[in-house]
Amino acid sequence: MPPERWGPVDANISMLFTEVPLAERPATARAAGFTAVEAWWPFEAAVPADTEVARFEQAVRDAGVQLVALNGFAGDMPAGDRGILSWPGRQREFLDNLDVVLGLGARLGCRRFNLLYGNRIDAAPAEAQDELAMENLVLAAPAARKAGAVLLLEPLSGASRYPLRTSGDVLGVLGRLPGDSADIAWLLADLYHLRVNGEDIPAMLDRVYARIGHVQVADVPGRHEPGTGTADLDGWVTRLRQLGYQGPIGLEYAPLDTTAAGLHHLGTAREVVPSSPEV
Questions:
Q1: Which of 131, 160, 218, 253 is deepest in the core (most CB within 10 A)?
Q2: Both ends of the chain: CA-CA distance in Å?
Q3: pLDDT exceeds cutoff 70 at 175
């Protein structure tokens, strides 16, 4: 595990512990010493069957871990989709999924929800997609506020048609939100994606830390365990803590070997993560 001065960390079970089925990963993470997990949308459909939701929920409960962050439905990710927030023709699907996300979060005490923006599509002008994304965020804000939740927007790398690539891209969206919605949406600072996309991470943290709602890490290059590349993750996370970020650090990387081998490489320290968002 990372140094103790990193503070609370969590395991992203969509990328870690893939040696076992998803339903077994919360318990496997707990056995490895984690008290908190996060996940991409763990179902194929935007509105899965109640039995699927209940099975995932029970797996988290039975494992005794805290779900601290959850992605909304992102479309067909293996085919290249990266969210539906800005996709014309899918607003009803987005809003229906939001109901499921917030309901699952309420039952599990999760209050951070990552809404992937969506790729640019040829069938609609970029301006129309941006207007729809803004409309959907404004519609989502009251429900998120009622749930005591925050909505996250994430820059991504490796997806050429995805328009949010830097912290500035996300802040540009956040800056357009009306005042009664502005405090609900935050930047998800995945330091791997931001670094790959050319961000000066220390300068970025000093500039935008007050708008960061969640943090994820992987080393650069390769998106593997901290310590396997050249990124100054220790320095970056230490700086975040100095600036006042109190939330968890999500370990979202592709293990070089097994997850267990990578965790042994990182060490053994674990910390409990608070269930409420610290942003």
A1: 218
A2: 23
A3: yes
